[in-house]
Amino acid sequence: MRLTLMADQIALAVRDLAVHFEMEQGVVRALEGVSFDLRAGRTLGIVGESGCGKSVTARSILRILDRPGRVVGGSIVLDPGSSGSTDVLALDSNAERMRAIRGGRIGLIFQEPMTALSVHYTVGNQIIEAVRQHSDLSKQAARDRAIELLREVGIPRPELRVDAYPFQLSGGLRQRVGIAMALAGDPDILIADEPTTALDVTTQAQVLDLLRRLQAEKGIALMLITHDMGVIAEMCDDVAVMYLGRIVEYAPVETLFAAPRHPYTRALLRAVPTILAKPRQRLATIGGAVPHPGARPVGCPFHPRCSEVIEGRCTAAVPPPIPPGQAGASCFLEVPG
Amino acid sequence: MPPMHDALRSPPMRCLLLKDAFRHAPDRTGGAGRDTNAHAYLMLSYLLQRLGLALVTCLFISALTFLIIRLPPGDFVDAYIANLTASGSSVSHEQAEAMRREYGLDQPVLVQYARWMGRVLQGDFGVSMVWRRPVTEVIGDRLWLTMVVSLAALFLTWAIALPIGIYSAVRQYSIGDYIFTTLGFIGLAIPNFLLALILMYLGFRYLGLNVGGLFSPDYVQAPWSWARVWDLIKHLPLPAAVLALAGTAQLIRIMRANLLDELRRPYVVTARAKGLSEMRAILKYPVRAALNPFASSVAYLFPYLVSGSIVVSLVLGLPTVGPLLLQALVAQDMFLAGAIVLLLGVMTVIGTLISDILLIWIDPRIRLEGRA
User: How large is the ipTM?
Assistant: First the structure.
């Protein structure tokens, strides 16, 4: 179903992205050298526990990181290799050009469809605003476009729903509105930040279906942030596993599930509840908790929780990062020594 | 594709089977085009209910007003006699009783209340015992002047406080925020009357302003004319500034706190992610939400609009309603005090009613669902 023409075209290349939060208690290193590519028509899953830097990555790409967060290094390049390639980090975050990219090239879909929409305006108002931000359409034409978008994301009777307020819609419909809004500027890259976390399982499946359909129709490069391994298995082509601001494993989805290489990935997969479990069998957990990013362990950040820790190596140095575009794990088990 | 953990696949797969059954299920609201007539009816019955409650409240206020103005020992005649005695003359017992009969003060309390209310409902607030003129006449002119001064103060408050509040929240902990915060707290801490005195002194000493009152001496008793209006406008800034000061400081703090809460909400990120400019995103979404509480504050502003600030009015010599109430209470001028207190109470009720209507108007959640 992929558009073969664009299948391997890189839409966005993130290299060595580093983000710091300068807090009173000291500098929190939220991202430490994150690299990945988003390709047209393909889905990259980003998976990890809360606080590992998934959402910070998304916001850094859109340049809407809240203070005190600050990008301190790396590059985020749109259309790398082409004549019109742009490093979004070089743009002023409130500049016209950056705002045209935000929503126009890169759309964002949110986790919480209730709080992500303003209760003070109708969904039509909020979508029309996005449409007009990225086009010269008249009010009436933008309204027609908004209705068209609502229809496209599978909202029944869109010509009525366009005048509804968000709180008048069910959770699933609200998330569809959120997707319609992300599509309003006709972006070719979509970042979905836990788009199904707040939804019940039935609605989850519908929303994932919708995303897959839109991606196939428009050849969108999709970055799907989640902590749900089921969603990853359903949706993704490639997966980046994040831990404490670093990508610890990067692999095609089949490889990741069949032969996970990083101990953290293996632990995550073990922790997924299985329907084949015996009654009263205890759920597998990963020992310990994610350390506070301000109190990062010396050596490999995962070593205090790792069951395969190599004393003297993992406790002393950080394993080398995965070269961009290659499958692999950032782990000393991978590095002969 | 190599075999995958079946369990991973299974929950979504199960849903795939269910999904078609649910796809066309009606959502819980039945769509946006809900019967607008039903909404209008709900709103109307809600408003009528509020109106009924407001009337009942006003009745209670009138009874309470009457009780309060009768609370101090003695009555107007006692106060009158004490006044005359102090200045050397005396009043005979018969004369006193005759006065009591004249004002109806010899009747039982309930009868006095009923008579008073009966006349009030016809627009007759009785005769001020001190001024020996109808209460409506005594209050009349002052009421309009009070409203002019209070409205000027109110607009000044909002015009200064809202932009500064927004700035302080958006640039939290910036130098500007600290400066405004400091000024704001100083403004809160300085008593109004002290500021009034200082400004009067400065205005008189260095600017040669004609301070005090709302009119130049030539215009105090003059009939209304454009020249008199212009004279009033020239006198307005000082009292308006003094009256606005404390309110401004308070409003800045409220606006800043409200907006700080709203700025953290995900819909602000949504607005930014659409590509809106920072200014547009902030003014359209979080500022709008932060303004909601101001609609509720209308209830408190209304009585203030008619009374003004008593102390500041006294210091600045403003002919507003506030000082009148003070005099009436001191002299036990029952009908005058009663009329003013009643007016203040009713204004509070009307203010509450208006803020209810405002909230319905600006908050779609209340309008459409009856909740916030």
Answer: 0.86
